[in-house]
Amino acid sequence: MWPGPARRRGRAGHGGGRGRGVSPAEVARVRRAQVRAAPWPYGELDVAGLRRAGRLGVPFREMVLKVHQRCNLACDYCYVYEHADQSWRDRPRVMSDAVRDAALGRFAEHARRHGLKRVRVVLHGGEPLLYGRERLAELAGRARAAFPAGCAVEIGMQTNGVLLDEATVSMLVECDIKVGVSVDGVAVEHDRHRRLPDGRGSFAAVERGLAILRKRENVRSYAGLLCTISAGTDPISCYRQLARFEPPMIDLLLPHANWEVPPWRPGGLGNANANADLNANANAHANAYAAWLIAVFDEWYAETAPPRIRLFDDAISLVLGGASRGEQLGLSPSGVVVVESDGAIEQVDALKSTYPGACATGLDVFGDDLDAALDDPGVVARQIGRAALSAECLSCPAVAFCGGGHYAHRYRRGVGFRAPSVYCADLRIFVQHVHERVTADVRRIRDSSPGATPGELYEDDQQVV
Prior knowledge:
Elements: H1 5-9, H2 24-37, H3 39-42, H4 47-52, E1 62-66, H5 97-114, E2 118-124, H6 133-146, E3 152-159, H7 166-174, E4 177-182, H8 187-193, H9 203-213, E5 222-228, H10 235-244, E6 249-253, H11 288-301, E7 308-309, H12 310-319, E8 336-339, E9 344-346, E10 360-364, H13 370-374, H14 377-381, H15 391-394, H16 399-402, H17 424-448
Parallel strand pairs: 1-2, 1-8, 2-3, 3-4, 4-5, 5-6, 6-7
Antiparallel strand pairs: 8-9, 9-10
C-alpha cells in the first residue's frame, strides 16, 4: 500500500484530526517510489533547470476538495475504487473541519500571493452529497469568506445525482453551487455501469434529480452533464438522451486507460496501433472510440443550436488556432490541485488509474503551501506543453491539435508519462475529421465573404462545468 499521509498518521475512519505537516524524509520516500513507477517525469525532468531558465509554475486556479471518500454507487469503471490506486481505503471517510479550513486557507494564501482574480473550488468524492447539506452550505460560506476582496470564488460540484432532492437542490441554489451530474446516456447503458451497491441501476434516480435541477427556479445551479463514453454502444442514442436533459455543457470522457491497462474495444481487441490507417472506416473495432466521437460530432455539428460539448469546443478552437480548456486535447497548462480528506495535497484523480501513489506529492495542507506543489515534477510535467511529449508525438502532424491526449492515458511502465496516448490512433482520426470539417467551412465562408475570419465561426464562451 502507498505510504500516504492517512496511513502515517493513523487517521483512517470518520473525521481526521489536525496534522503536523510532512517530514523531508517522507517527501524523499514518496519521490523514490515515484521514480521507480514513472521514470519520466520523476527521475528525468529537471525542474530546477526549468526554474533557473525562467520557466515558472502556473498558479493553481482550481482546488478539488475530496469532502467524502465513499460513494453510494458501485460503478464498474470508477478510477477511484476500481483501478490501481486504493489509497481511499486508508483515508478518513469525511473531511474534517480542520482539513477543510486549512485547505481553504492555503488556497486563499496562494490566490493572494499570485494576484488571482478568479478561483474555483470543486466539491468532490466519492459522492460529495454524502457530506451533508448543512456542512456543504457551511463550506460554501467559508470558501467565499476566505479569499481576498477582488477575487471571485466559483463553487462547483460533481455528483452522481442520486441524492438530488428538493431540499438539497434548494440548498445548492441558495449557496450558488454549480452542479455537474454524471449520466452515461440511455438508461440501459447507464445502468450497465452505474449501479447501486445492490446491483440495481441508478438512471431513474438520476433522472428524477435532474428534473428538479432543471426547474426554472433551480436551473442557475445546473452546470451540465459528464458522460463516460462506451465504444460499441449507439453514439447517437447516447447524445440525444443527454441533449434531452437540456444541459448547459456536456463533457464526453474517454474511459481512463493506459498502456498497462488498455481500453476495452469491441471484438476483444486491445489498443489500436498508434500508426493505424487514418481512414475511420478501415477498422471499426480498432478505432471504435474515434468512430463513436465522429458520429456524435457530425450529428452535433449539423444542428442549429446544439448543447455545448467541451471536447468538440476544444477541438474546433484548436483547429482555429485557439487553446483548449479541458484535459483531453491540447497543451494548455493544468492549474488544478486536489486536497484529499486527510489533507494530502495531490495531483488530479485521473492518475489513480495508472499505478498506486501516482497522485501523491508528499505534501499536505497543514505543513506545506501550494507553491511547493507547483515544483512537483508531475505538476510541472502538465504545465510545460510540448516539452512533456514523446519524440513520437512531436513528430506527428496531429500534435498541434491532440496535444498528446490526456496525461493519464500516456502512462507506460518503465517509461512513465512520456509516451503517446493509449488512444493515439483514435485521437488522430478524430482530430483529422474535425480539422477537415472546420477548414472546409472556413474556406466556404471566406469564398462567400472575403472579410470573414475563422473566429467568426466559433464564439469561445466561458467554461460552465
